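User: Structure tokens for this complex, please. No commentary.
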Amino acid sequence: MGSLTIGKVAGLAGVGVETIRFYEREGLIPKPPRKESGYRQYPEEAVVRIRFIKRAKDLGFSLKEIREILSLRISSEVTCEDIRVRAEAKISDIEKKIGTLTKMKRALTKLTSACMGEVPVSRCPILEALEGEES
Amino acid sequence: MGSLTIGKVAGLAGVGVETIRFYEREGLIPKPPRKESGYRQYPEEAVVRIRFIKRAKDLGFSLKEIREILSLRISSEVTCEDIRVRAEAKISDIEKKIGTLTKMKRALTKLTSACMGEVPVSRCPILEALEGEES
DNA sequence: CTTGACTCCGTAGTATGGTACGGTCTTTAT
DNA sequence: ATAAAGACCGTACCATACTACGGAGTCAAG
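Assistant:
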């Protein structure tokens, strides 16, 4: 108990076994301890971590960025100042994404109301909603 | 005037010329009219559309999904009902993304406060903040 | 009226993020 | 005790989204 095989972790996290081995090679998850047989033994936390990776990927973060985000933790090797600066940079990335998504949502909502017959649409509201933006 | 070369569009949209030709092949942007020489002539709207594609990509939408979003417009070929249904599905995707980003942001903010010396952090707040979630 | 920057096209190559294969060893359920 | 299911490994393959190449034609500034 308190230790899962790779297949269990994969099932719980909703990914394939090969994906977990891939993430291990890529340094996104720590190498777990092994049994004498060589089988990997994961703590339950591994599931949480893999689910996090999955979500972050859906949000447009690359594995490289995710690795960076995951490495943001307090340790003796990095200064707090350094962590703060990097975390703040990620926060601002995230805020930008939220802002753009909010605009897209408003545009789509406008489209649905137009479809309810409330407004005649001359141009594409999806494109209009994002006009005049700097990336 | 009112018509741009592919290079101009690329510059204004912040992508390469080859990317635009690629998007055209993939059906993400309409085929523009040509001069007798064969040169593409883009309306200024093309820039807006390409910038939209760029942003949507950053937010984790695939080109396939972006093509779908961009095809959501009122025309004689699709019923309003159909558009409404598809737009609402996209809206709910977007809301989910916003929700997850908001959680990530809160987690990172917590991390920065911890770094300001306010709280001692025992476990990783980034992972904790997303615990117990279903995708 | 030349010359350098830009366009055309098809095809090939690259980076990212997996996914599959296949042969061998381990675990587990009957 | 045995067989099916699952794990091990390296390597190869795949889809997505570009990016580069090369040879030829076009445009526009001096």
